[in-house]
Amino acid sequence: MTAIDCSNRAETRATLVFGGSRDADVRFVLGLGNLENLALLVRRGRIDVLAADMEVERIRRAVGGRITVWTLSSFRRAGDRGLWPAFARFVKGFGLREVLVGDRFPLGFAQALRSRGVKVSISGASVFPERRRKDREQLRAISQMQSVAVRAMRAAAAIIGESRVGQRNRLYWRGRTLGSEELRAEIERVVFTQCAVAEGTIVSCGVASADPHEPGVGPLFAGQPIVVDIFPRSRASGYWGDLTRTMVKGRMNGKLRAMFSAVRRARAEAFRRMRHGVRIRSVYRAAARALEAAGFATRMGPRAEGFIHNLGHGVGLEIHEPPVLGDVPGCLREGDVVTVEPGLYYRNVGGVRIEDVVVVTRDGCRLLSRCPLFGEIP
Amino acid sequence: MTAIDCSNRAETRATLVFGGSRDADVRFVLGLGNLENLALLVRRGRIDVLAADMEVERIRRAVGGRITVWTLSSFRRAGDRGLWPAFARFVKGFGLREVLVGDRFPLGFAQALRSRGVKVSISGASVFPERRRKDREQLRAISQMQSVAVRAMRAAAAIIGESRVGQRNRLYWRGRTLGSEELRAEIERVVFTQCAVAEGTIVSCGVASADPHEPGVGPLFAGQPIVVDIFPRSRASGYWGDLTRTMVKGRMNGKLRAMFSAVRRARAEAFRRMRHGVRIRSVYRAAARALEAAGFATRMGPRAEGFIHNLGHGVGLEIHEPPVLGDVPGCLREGDVVTVEPGLYYRNVGGVRIEDVVVVTRDGCRLLSRCPLFGEIP
């Protein structure tokens, strides 16, 4: 998974990454947890890593011989203020005239380099474009997380199915009110038992679900949309899954049913078009058109309504990574792993979102896991 | 917890933060999860936030009237490449001549501001110095996590106590080999049931524990150090705890016993000195001296041995935050919440580390939770 193709990198400059295990580029190269404050210098066929002395042995054990690991203390000087002087000396020591960095590279590190005569350029491309195309092992890691999400989603649907409708349409389960908090706890418990972590799981009901990222609070009600969005991350590999279903206990009303049906149609339109080489914008627009054709207009702004987010996003070592599936330039490519998540949001109804993860292939796209759409739950 | 004192901020410039819920400064101000790509502009008595349109309502509901939330779409122009032009327009719109940022501020954002004539200066101080001094509510949040860690540590000690010693000193529990992985899973399960998340929990045994951040793998053995380092984060508040104990099933050998005793003495020396106004360097050096006086010298470099890390670090919305307790300038202050974690690491023995979290007071320091030292476990 960390096989990096460095063959097209020039020798007079290098790509520079700063970060820790939480940063996808570092995780991609080293695959280790519990790391902070590392520099990776990537040139043709060679990677040099600068790390705190006490981390050096652990990193050396984990990586192959192609990666050289250096100790921070050997670049420190008395009187240094903060980390940046030592990190800048490390880079400068390779005699490079220029380093390419991502646009979120730390300003302090950039200034320390520039003051030592090293040019710092933001690379228009991603630092590791290799991360976008997922190989077999990465597909397996993401599929595993997607299966974990499916398992948790099935558990959520089963609980809504087992619940009974009480006073003022509230749901009750095992003798108690069923709230967003309880359902979220059950979902995250299932994810936890599958060696993954889910946090921020969305279980939002009724008009609250008109905010796509509202986590949800309080009782769940029959006849109203319950948006369940589960995004587990593997504790071992760091890869993510992402899955959303919209469930209704009992029957949907007319508006909700029309929204649900429009979102399904948008999803089908997207799936039908997605394949290697297709323009991303055309996929996004096909989904948006399907929603508009069903009478669901979008209005942006502070109280945005309609199809108010992108059609999807890349998934990998970050929950949101390139490519964005929006009204943007660029094409889908074989090996892209992206969510497809059309949704509709109206203040007086709530939200309907259906989200899956697919891998783009030569001639189409393939779901990484299958999950029922649920919809109405008796 | 988000009461920010802006009274000493000048009006011709502002402090600028970019980030999401994972970033402590953003979490400190907004307290919300599931957020990405926000700008916070902080001036005297006023905070302005720029967020994606679909997040604006949720943020407005969560924050008081003193914070104004702006929609990203109103700053976007056709032809923008990436996020930075819109974010820079937002800042520029306030007529500021200069913004102060942290040293990890994204280079791309800084360049977009500079190209529009806004000076970007790295503030020597932390962006929110208010984060360092913990108030009662923050102390409660961290203490809660520390208590969760204690509960999990007690569970770990109980398992080691229940385990029996088998062939070649291996530990067996409930009829199976007890490995790092099993003990870690039990620890993290306990943390999970307490509404918190622990990841990267260290359970390293024998010579492997000579690497302070080695997570540990494979069977646990009697007579060897088992370093258990648990750092739970609250799912609700985002605050961290951090606790380490070193346990030995059965008896310690002479060297190990001497290391354990030296680390305890270093801990006591640190506790005895810590109070408001004391020089951090003097606390660090007192602990280091206690270890050296017991015959445990430190050597840095790639195969570092001895007391090879700092004495501690601040804990709050980040697991590692200011102040560092090292050989550094500066003084401890009332309200500092820091780990105290002397440790010794030798390649042929392994590691001994004892770590607690304390709050610094006017005239001393106070443990946020009490946990037995364990040591030898029969």
SSE topology:
The structure is a homodimer of 378-residue chains.
Chain A: E1 13-19, H1 24-30, E2 38-43, E3 46-51, H2 53-62, E4 67-71, H3 84-92, E5 98-101, H4 107-114, E6 119-122, H5 136-162, E7 164-165, E8 171-173, E9 176-177, H6 180-193, E10 196-198, E11 202-205, E12 226-230, E13 232-234, E14 243-249, H7 254-273, H8 280-293, E15 312-314, E16 321-325, E17 337-340, E18 343-346, E19 350-353, E20 356-361, E21 364-367, E22 375-377
Parallel strand pairs in A: 1-5, 3-4, 5-6, 14-22
Antiparallel strand pairs in A: 1-2, 2-3, 7-8, 8-9, 10-13, 11-12, 12-14, 15-16, 17-20, 18-19, 20-21
Helix pairs in contact in A: 3-4, 5-6, 7-8
